[in-house]
Design brief:
The structure holds two protein chains of two kinds. Helices cover 43% and strands 19% of the residues of chain A. Chain A has 15 helices and eleven strands. Chain A has helices spanning 2-28, 77-84, 94-103, 129-141, 147-156, 168-181, 194-199, 202-212, 228-238, 287-301, 307-314, 345-361, 365-379, 389-396, 405-415; strands spanning 35-40, 43-49, 55-62, 107-112, 118-125, 218-224, 262-266, 273-283, 319-327, 331-341, 422-427. In chain A, helix 2 (77-84) packs across helix 8 (202-212) and helix 10 packs across helix 15. Chain A starts with a helix and ends with a strand. Mean pLDDT of chain A is 85; it is low at 23-33. Chain B folds into two domains: 27-225, Metalloenzyme, LuxS/M16 peptidase-like (Cytochrome Bc1 Complex, Chain A, domain 1); 245-418, Cytochrome Bc1 Complex, Chain A, domain 1 (2-Layer Sandwich), CATH 3.30.830.10. In chain B, the strands form two sheets. Chain B has a five-stranded mixed β-sheet with strand order 1-5-2-4-3, with helices on both faces. A five-stranded mixed β-sheet of chain B has the order 6-10-7-9-8, sandwiched between helices. In chain B, a hairpin with a 2-residue loop joins strand 8 and strand 9 (309-316). In chain B, helix 3 (76-83) crosses helix 9, helix 11 (266-289) crosses helix 16 and helix 14 packs antiparallel against helix 16 (383-392). Classes of the chains: A alpha+beta, B alpha+beta.
Chain lengths: 431, 422
């Protein structure tokens, strides 16, 4: 009896010790786990597990199936697919499909084809995932939209930017892309080309779904109370009869026009405000170089205490500035859009020229290192939402700690090279 | 005996550690406001394993916004918001890896920051001084920046219309260069002293952390340092123009028909969020059902609720006349107002709302907004209460609401009409 009691005590102590350790390392240290590379045939899955959740967030990302990689003759077809894919599923009418999606407890269904990849995301109740995936599977293997649906979808896609209702920022940005990339997907209106869209047939749409929305190009992200084995089961249901396919070929990108360094746009309602956009492109950046670029943009341009903003204040120039880093799979572009009072135009242009010269001749490494530290720290903050989790994963976990002075120097030399820059001015009257 | 001692120590230690690691309660409804006096801010903590990330959103809310300003000094709140966090504090926040934004709305000014839990105390240390005084740097540049931003808002699809509409109702939210130019540094300091100084109404801390991060003493320190009042004076009655119909012709807007409704009756205030959930669903369904019919009329529609106002905006297609749009809208509203909404439909809508709320738990900013809304209140209601309200409302009450509020003449009808001079 005594021996058994001692054994029991040792066992209980051991269990208590295990509990203590698990509380210490798992309870107190709140950490996250992302399992990578769960293979589902030729597709891949990623999961962020959260216990005791009613809802599961799902994101499907088909690589190089977005509008930036459409065939030129069918430029905009992916946008049509985004409208038609879940319109009518499994022989149901539009209304019945919409009701069924609601009945399955699916919320915030979003289809986005506007960039490199074709993305589908939604929330679904964890106990309805199997049904939801079985239902969506039909959309991939047997799309059932009609010719009439296709014609209606074509009307929904704007064939061109309406200058009257498009913001000056968007107009300037589109013009800069045209100048940087020329007549290829990267330089064209991401809505599509009107001639191409009008020529798309039902057969083209079906071929697109069969050839581009395939397993070899697919990553699935799950966030919720799901295990590895759950994911394998659900994914298999979703991908029944979905072809493996070939790897999607990225589009070719053009060189842009070297003899057009600047352009002007007139927009009547600008009144006495002038918009100026500078754009530059950098191709084939490595991950570390991307991280360096991000640090440089933040240090120089972002926030009210950035170097650029500080200088504007000292020069008595009131300006609203916005920097956009457009990081696409084949090329990265940086756009600096500013809005100034008409009377400040000449001073602003002189200021920018002086800043470009300054950045080319000396680099404030101390500031760059400070911002580098900042990015390393905010990576520890983790995510605050799940939307764009694929993008968040990419940017939050960039190798900021591996960036060196050499990387900063390389990027800055390219970023502030006048020969690489394109300028667009938007005003009420021609300048 | 040794084994007994070791066993007892290990067991005691483990049990204590397990319980010491308890999280805060996972529902702000349990905590509620823990303000003990009218001079202390309400502090609301919402802690759960949202995303299992070491991630916290902290906000400091002043119950003062654009509506608190006299027309002559419109723009003062925007200037204050831009100067609330000075350069030195900004640098120190960056050193800690804290990202933040400062926003001013019609009713509030809020500092909202995202950080690692270990930095919560340091954040409040840095924020301690901001409620004591304001330093305005480069006032003229600040004003000019605000003017440019204001002009640029007019290019947005919805902002311009709703800006125009709310400007009719609350003229103090509109400012122009000449009113802004009259504002001096003394005006700003006086306004700050009257409305912001020691007047934090609400602090929210939402995220994933345990009681070892913030102790009872820490809370008391925060309350002491951020003295404030959680009460605000009610908004003044809305004074509409004599005309109930406004026609704006301009070169820069698409055509739109906008109806403005106000809700003053307490009974209807509670029903408003319920009704809007149902109205949106019915309008959406009608769009789906009659897609070929309605999509040939409208390119878009928009329902927005702010304070006691409901705004419905309809954007007709280019070749559709505004009078046709008005006729169609009247038919739609009549249909929805007189339709018997079955219990089945109400359950469905409640379920949709419930799922939406669950989905929001994946976005910390949305959780944070919900937490804030519960305390600040107004016409917005707690969303779980909303789900229950949808389920239990009677169809008769809904029809009464629709007839009283929507079907009877709206308080204001605003037409914007594009007119080209070319």
């Amino acid at each position: 009896m005594k021996k058994i009691t001692t054994k029991l005590k040792i066992t209980i102590s051991a269990i208590a010790l295990v509990l203590f350790c698990s509380v210490l390392f798992l309870g107190k240290n709140i950490s996250y786990f992302i399992f990578q590379g769960i293979n589902i045939g030729s597709a891949e899955a990623y999961v962020l597990p959260l216990k005791n959740r009613e809802m599961v967030y799902v994101k499907l990302v088909f690589k190089n199936a977005g509008v930036l990689h459409d065939d030129i003759e069918l430029h905009g077809i992916s946008n049509l697919v985004s409208v038609l894919l879940f319109k009518k599923i499994n022989g149901l009418s539009t209304e019945e499909t919409a009701e069924k999606i609601i009945d399955l407890g699916i919320r915030e269904l979003n289809v986005d084809s506007s960039a490199d990849d074709f993305k589908i995301s939604f929330f679904v109740r964890y106990n309805r995932i199997k049904e939801a995936f079985a239902f969506f599977n039909k959309a991939f293997v047997a799309p059932s939209f009609s010719d009439g649906d296709l014609e209606t979808a074509k009307e929904l896609i704007p064939s061109a930017m309406d200058p009257e209702t498009t913001s000056p920022g968007q107009l300037m940005m589109q013009k800069v892309f045209e100048m940087l990339y020329g007549n290829c997907n990267y330089g064209m209106n991401p809505a599509g080309t009107s001639q191409a869209i009008s020529g798309v047939s039902k057969v083209d749409i079906q071929a697109f779904i069969k050839q581009k929305l395939t397993c070899k190009n697919l990553k699935i992200f799950f966030v919720g109370d799901v295990s590895k084995s759950d994911i394998k089961t659900y994914s298999k249901i979703l991908l029944v009869n979905v072809p493996d396919g070939d790897v999607n070929t990225p589009a070719k990108i053009g060189q842009g026009s070297s003899n057009e360094p600047s352009a002007t746009i007139t927009k009547e309602n600008m009144k006495d405000v002038i918009g100026i956009a500078y754009g530059i492109r950098i191709d084939q950046l490595s991950d570390v170089e991307r991280a360096a670029l991000r640090i440089i943009i933040t240090a120089i341009f972002e926030g009210n205490n950035s170097d650029f903003s500080d200088g504007l204040v000292k020069s008595d120039i009131a300006c609203k500035t916005h920097v956009k880093l457009v990081d696409r799979s084949l090329s990265t572009s940086v756009l600096l859009c500013s809005y100034i009072d008409k009377k400040d135009f000449d001073n602003y242009m002189k200021y920018v020229n002086s800043k470009i010269a300054e950045y080319n001749s000396s680099i404030d490494y101390e500031k760059l290192n400070k911002v580098q530290e900042y990015f390393i720290k905010i990576a520890n903050n983790g995510f605050y939402n799940v939307s764009d989790i694929d993008e968040q994963m990419k940017y939050t976990y960039m190798p900021f700690d591996k960036v060196t002075q050499e990387h900063f120097l390389t990027i800055i030399k390219h970023l502030f090279n006048r020969n690489n820059m394109k300028t667009v001015i938007c005003s009420a009257t021609s300048m | 005996m040794q084994i007994n001692k070791i066993f007892a120590i290990v067991l005691l230690f483990s049990v204590q550690l397990i319980f010491a690691n308890e999280q805060y309660m996972t529902s702000y409804e349990d905590l509620g406001s823990n303000s003990t006096s009218s001079h202390e801010p309400a502090i609301v903590i919402y802690s759960n394993d949202c995303l299992s990330m070491p991630s916290v959103i902290v906000s400091i809310v002043f119950r003062v916004g654009k509506l608190d300003v006299s027309i002559a000094k419109s723009g003062i709140v925007e200037i204050i918001a831009k100067n609330l966090i000075n350069k030195e504090t900004d640098n120190r926040l960056m050193d800690l890896g804290i990202t933040y934004s400062v926003n001013c709305t019609d009713t509030d000014t809020e500092i909202c920051a995202h950080m690692h839990p270990k930095n919560i105390k340091k954040f409040f240390e840095l924020m301690k001084d901001i409620t004591q005084s304001i330093k305005v740097e480069n006032l003229e540049i600040c004003k000019r920046r605000i003017i440019i931003e204001k002009k640029l808002i007019n290019y947005g699809k919805y902002n311009s219309v709703s800006d125009n509409i709310f400007a009719q109702i609350y003229p103090q939210i509109v400012f122009n260069e000449s009113t802004l130019q009259t504002i001096t540094v003394d005006d700003i300091k006086n306004f700050f002293d009257e409305y912001y100084r020691n007047n934090v109404a609400l602090i929210t801390i939402c995220g994933n952390f345990g009681k070892e991060i913030l102790t009872k003493q820490d809370f008391n320190d925060i309350k002491k340092n951020f003295g404030g009042s959680s009460q605000r004076t009610s908004l003044s009655d809305i004074n509409f123009l004599k005309d109930r119909y406004i026609h704006i012709e301009n070169k820069f807007e698409r055509n739109s028909v906008n109806y403005v409704y106000t809700i003053s009756d307490q009974k209807y205030k509670k029903l408003a969020p319920v009704f809007l959930s149902i109205f949106s669903y019915e309008l959406f369904k009608t769009f789906i059902q009659n897609q070929s019919l309605l999509s040939s009329f409208f390119s878009d529609f928009y329902i927005h609720r702010e304070n006691d106002i409901i705004l419905v905006s309809l954007y007709p297609k280019k070749d559709i006349s505004l009078s046709e749009v008005k006729k169609l809208y009247k038919i739609l509203v009549q249909k929805i107002s007189t339709k018997e909404i079955s219990k089945e439909i109400l359950s469905k809508i409640a379920e949709i709302k419930r799922i939406s709320i669950d989905a929001q738990n994946y976005d910390m900013y949305k959780i944070h907004s919900r937490v804030k809304e519960k305390i600040i209140g107004g016409i917005s209601s707690n969303e779980t209460t909303l789900v229950r309200a949808i389920e239990s409302v009677s169809p008769k009450e809904l029809n009464e609401f629709a007839l009283k509020i929507l079907y009877e003449q709206p308080k204001l009808e605003i037409i914007t009409q594009y007119r080209s001079d070319r």
